[in-house]
């Protein structure tokens, strides 16, 4: 579970954006302040639940006394029509927080559901599905948490927790070797170093250098198998590029350790979830 300090500022910012300068003029005009209501969070499609605790925080920000009965916690699967949770509290709070809660849950559950599908495709191989930094600005901690709820794993969270030397770094540095040497002179002993390569020739050069992980970029499965054989366990191998449900199994069967997928956090479709009073 995420600590509330990690998502409460996101929830408050989203509610403030929606409330604007005048508050919920529709709900406040129609619903008496003391009216109570019970609502169910229902899935419209099959999926993996993620973001429920964040959605609950949206309701409780407006009504701290909201009571919640959870049927399908984060990380569980839900069928079409299935109830995820029931919330009871002041009707104004439920209606005003509805869109913020559903936006967050739909987004995160969609990511978890897409991750679940890829993870199922690679079952029986050594490959792990990992996300990238291609996240919605401000929502990275939530979106990466959703990947974990879907059975995947996280790549680095930001620019500061690991080194990833990509093609543009190599171009500016004048080659793989000077790029790696400069990094090693600058970083601490706890920082992992990954280098992106596009060809087997680059990989052969990399194997003589002090790095931890190799990113095998846009290689077909046959080339990936040759790359894994060249590495022979000396580095962690990560495949990236052209990963989808149709290709991921062949990529995994090449023997790579990790398969990174950017679209999990930038293009996964929302899971349709409704709030039914």
Automatic annotation (TrEMBL):
Keywords noted in UniProt: Glycosyltransferase, Pyridine nucleotide biosynthesis, Transferase
Record Pfam families: QRPTase_C, QRPTase_N
Stretches assigned to the Quinolinate phosphoribosyl transferase C-terminal domain: 111-276
Name listed for the protein in its UniProt record: nicotinate-nucleotide diphosphorylase (carboxylating)
Pathway: Cofactor biosynthesis; NAD(+) biosynthesis; nicotinate D-ribonucleotide from quinolinate: step 1/1
Organism: Azospirillum rugosum
Coiled coil: none
Domain Quinolinate phosphoribosyl transferase N-terminal: 24-109
Keyword Disulfide bond: no
InterPro entries: Aldolase_TIM, NadC, NadC/ModD, Nicotinate_pribotase-like_C, Quinolinate_PRibosylTase_N_sf, Quinolinate_PRibosylTrfase_C, Quinolinate_PRibosylTrfase_N
One Gene Ontology molecular-function label: nicotinate-nucleotide diphosphorylase (carboxylating) activity
Role noted for this protein: Involved in the catabolism of quinolinic acid (QA).
Enzymatic class: transferase
EC numbers, comma separated: 2.4.2.19
UniProt similarity note: Belongs to the NadC/ModD family.
């Amino acid at each position: 579970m995420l600590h509330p300090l990690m998502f409460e500022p996101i929830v408050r910012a989203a509610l403030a954006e929606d409330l604007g300068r005048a508050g919920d003029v529709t709900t406040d005009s129609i619903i008496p302040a003391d009216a109570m209501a019970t609502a169910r969070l229902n899935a419209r499609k099959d999926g993996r639940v993620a973001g429920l605790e964040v959605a609950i925080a949206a309701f409780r920000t407006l009504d701290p006394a909201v009571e919640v009965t959870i049927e399908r916690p984060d990380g569980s699967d839900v069928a079409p029509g299935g109830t995820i949770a029931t919330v009871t509290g002041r009707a104004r709070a439920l209606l005003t927080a509805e869109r913020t809660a559903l936006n967050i849950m739909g987004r995160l559950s969609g990511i978890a559901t897409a991750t679940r599908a890829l993870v199922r495709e690679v079952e029986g191989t050594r490959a792990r599905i990992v996300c990238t930094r291609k996240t919605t600005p401000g929502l990275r901690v939530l979106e990466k948490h959703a990947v974990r709820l879907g059975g995947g794993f996280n790549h680095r969270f930001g620019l500061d927790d690991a080194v990833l030397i990509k093609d543009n770094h190599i171009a500016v540095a004048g080659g793989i070797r000077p790029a790696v040497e400069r990094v090693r002179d600058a970083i601490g002993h706890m920082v992992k170093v990954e280098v992106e390569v596009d060809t087997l020739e680059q990989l052969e050069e990399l194997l003589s250098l002090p790095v931890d992980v190799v990113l095998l970029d846009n290689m077909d499965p046959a080339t990936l198998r040759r790359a894994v054989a060249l590495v022979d366990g000396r580095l962690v191998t990560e495949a990236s590029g052209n990963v989808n449900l149709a290709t991921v199994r062949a990529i995994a069967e090449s023997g790579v350790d990790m398969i990174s997928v950017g679209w999990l956090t930038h293009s996964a479709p929302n899971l349709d979830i409704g709030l039914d009073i």
